[in-house]
Model the fold of this input.
Amino acid sequence: MVSVALLGDPVRSDAGTRLARLPRQVLYGVAYYAEYQPYDRLERDLDLMGQAGLTVIRVGESVWSTWEPDDGRFDLDWLQPVLDGAQARGIRVVLGTPTYAMPPWLVRKHPEVRAERRTGQAIPYGHRQDACFAHPAFRFHADRVVRRVVTRYRDHPAIIGYQVDNEPGTELFHNHCVFQAFVDSLRERFDDDVEALNRRWGLVYWSHRISRWDELWVPDGNTVPSYDLAWRRFQADLTTEFITQQAALVRELAHPDQFVTTCMAVNRPAFDAAALNANLDIAAINPYYAMQDALTLPTPPPGGELVNPSWNFMPPGPAAIYLQADMTFGARREPFLVTETNAMSTGFAHSNFPAYDGQWRQAAWALVARGARMVEYWHWHTNHFGHETYWQGVLNHDGEPGRCYQEVKRIAEDLRVAGEAVTELRPDVDVGIVYSPESKWAFAFQPPLTHPGTNVPDSASYERIFFELYAGVLSAGLQAAIVNPGELASSATELAARYPVLVVPALYVADDRTLSTLAAYAEAGGHLLLGFRTGYADPDARARAELMPAGPLRTAAGVKYNEYTNLTVPVPVRAAPGASIELPAGAGATAWADGLVLESATAEVLYDHPQLGRWPALTTRTHGRGRVSYLGTLPNPELARRLGLWLAPVHCEARRWPERPASVTLTSARNAKGERLRFLSNWSWDPRSLVTPMALRDLLSGETIPERGPITLGAWDVRVLVEAPPNTAPNERSMHADRL
Done:
């Protein structure tokens, strides 16, 4: 079922050629569906897009039943006027393949293609992404419609690339064909040795030992962590294999200078971002976020968190935008596309929270600053029918330009003025943060945390831990690169050169080699911050039989523990005597505490609590040419921000702008010319000002700001600033020679 050959090293030999039609400017546009409009307004729509300065549309991905109304009967010409009209106005097109929403006739003729969320229980037809794309019947029909659509339009000059499928990895398939393929994969992995599986998974427990492969039970009732992790890995491999196969099919038909991508939604349960994008030409993301008061820094006002839609797994705050961008850049360590993001309200009839003036502009520039080469909204107009009737586009149901349209027009002008200077940006890096899909899956099965204020397990424990540390780094003014576990196969010296600080939150599932690499990274000169639960389990999600932290990390960190506790309420913390970290009022520990015992480390932060006070919350120790610190709790925002400041490399941007207001984010990046750009954004109603430590030029207004000159930011405002290129060549590390 899964082709191992497709899951190897990235195929990038012709990626440059396939991206040739991407212009030397950031593309800016919308998803557009003329077929959804209640009357013919194609010319007016395209005219309004042209007048707004939009340069790209995405089309075609949602309407398989329009492309193929009945089995084998195709209607392919309806899109021609849309492409012709776009071409006439200089608007480029990304053509989507329609496989994520199957037509009723396919279900009628082949009901077995419906995905099963539980064995034998098919998803009722009527939504989307409800097909088991591993089923041969689905593959046959999907491949056929893709071939017909791409062949029909590949020669149209407006088309610069293709998006295959849409937000893949939405379901865990329990279909019979998938389960049997899973069993086959286990037989191959364990050399057909049932006893090896019994040992590795601990099936002696509760009498789960099997004597033959057909005794392996279906996953619905599974309670074995190792089984669940293997099942989740297999599901992610299925998604990667499907998208890789679809991309290969499109490449077979498309022109060599047309790219192929898919679009990620990072909360989907069945994909691994690095593997999914390895064999595509460019990564793409659909980043959604809460608007209005939810974007306020340093904290939203009361009720601001209620703006966040219930389906959005990202907590409120600007960090939700930056993190999704950084995750997408990290998937290939390259610039990326935004195929959907917020236009007006993002949700349903009860959730209407269009952005405040300025917030669309802030979000667009945040995405560009972290490497986006295209930003598209979902979508142009608001549907008059269907499930997403109130998921509003740039235009509302009246189809007339309004406040969102005017803001979009302003952003388009910004991007036109900025031009080539903001294309192919490579964000600066102060901190690498390791993101582990396998640890996320393991925590979903056995959550270490509960929902705050309850004793209900939180299946999003991993995401919560990761987000708090990422948000703390961002609020401290540091810039993060998302590090995939596969990158830890690099040499320790190379990692230390690339990432002066490496944060490892809850890397629960880890092999011995990874633990050794982390210790060696610090020895080679990096500052390693270990989070709780790191290294606790082996690659089969089995708890290790040793004092923690595991293996070489215990010596490197200079601490040990064999006890831990959940925290039902936040616990205040204080700086240890002689500590190098200074704590603000309100700093606290939440959710978890490891019972750390000092061996050769020193304490930095202590719990202010009669029982927990015997244990440090944060420790540190010199290790070789670097340092290992251990954080035994989940910090609240105040502690997380101060931790970020404490971690900051000596010559990073955060230290060069010490008077930055708490409502202002600062990021920087290099462009293709070697120029360093700085992006300042004020996430509040209150105007802010700060002093620049270097001479800058406002890229959009042309204003020159001298060294030590003032920079002003209005409410929900953003400034894009550039300095002359330095004498030295660009370096992905930023400026961190004296980082410890």
